[in-house]
Design brief:
This protein is an alpha/beta fold. The chain has helices spanning about 20, 30-50, 135-145, 160-170, 190-205, 230-235; strands spanning about 1-5, 55-60, 80, 100-105, 125-130, 130-135, 150-155, 170-180, 185, 220-225, 240, 245-250.
Length: about 260
């Protein structure tokens, strides 16, 4: 069995502020968060292999893709890192059996969602595919579905796990924290979440036949409500159709073109 693990940083154990994610500057808190990220990733790799996976590929999906502490990574997996990608899931193809999402966050506007946003925390408000409002979990699921691969596991905060189940059904999830506001949460110790992630991933691998790919047949109408008109101006210059002051739209023929 071959699995692809896509990662983000906002939903990682103990991460609560954008300062930790390196959004504005790569300071001391960001460096600590990199270790937390690597720890969650290693737990997922351990769970995948103990569950029966024979090959594990992990992508560093946050920002420029250079967040893992390389020397601390589990040697049983291989890793995709670095910027300049042609798409958000390089290397993903029909040869994989499952996609796992580690450290994800809830879509923009989610009450109690830690660091909630969709793609951009500073420019996007809402994102729709054929009228279905979704966030990055939905985007990743559609891309996996393009290759007929199911998303079988999601970790993040409680709101993220609820979003994943609402979209994908009874998949395996692990809530590593529960948000009260965008930056305040009840968290679990990384020692505890390491165990939970490993166990959750292993369960998901063993339940692989229970899951189905998330597929919306093309054409796909992508609509984005942006935070400001100047951002919409920029999208219009990139030949998106302008719907109103802050909303743009385009129609694509493949899930690989939704971003």
């Amino acid at each position: 069995m071959k699995v692809y693990i896509s990662t983000d940083l906002e939903g990682i154990s103990g991460v609560l502020t954008f300062q930790q994610t390196g959004r504005d500057e790569n300071g001391q808190e960001y460096e600590k968060a990199r270790h937390l990220l690597t720890r969650d990733v290693n737990a997922a790799v351990d769970g995948a292999i103990s569950g029966g996976a024979e090959e594990v590929v992990v992508i560093d999906g946050h920002g420029g893709g250079f967040n893992f502490i390389i020397e601390e990574l589990d040697p049983r997996a291989s890793y995709i890192m670095g910027p300049g990608r042609v798409n958000i899931c390089p290397g993903l193809d029909e040869s994989f059996d499952a996609v796992l999402l580690v450290g994800f966050h809830a879509m923009a506007g989610t009450k109690g969602g830690i660091l909630d946003h969709t793609q951009s925390s500073t420019t996007w408000l809402n994102y729709y595919v054929n009228g279905i409002k979704m966030g990055e979990i939905g985007q990743q699921s559609l891309i996996a579905g393009h290759f007929n691969i199911p998303v079988i596991f999601v970790s993040g905060d409680k709101a993220t796990c609820e979003e994943a189940k609402q979209l994908l059904g009874n998949i395996e999830t692990v809530a590593v924290k529960e948000g009260f506001t965008r930056n305040c949460a009840k968290i679990l110790s990384p020692k505890k979440t390491k165990e939970l992630i490993k166990e959750g991933v292993a369960r998901a691998i063993k339940r692989i036949k229970d899951f189905k790919p998330y597929i919306i047949k093309p054409p796909l109408e992508i609509k984005i409500e942006l935070q400001n008109t100047d951002v919409a101006d920029r999208y219009e210059r990139m030949e998106w159709k302008r719907i109103d002051g802050r909303t743009v739209l385009k129609v694509v023929d493949s899930a690989l073109k939704i971003l």
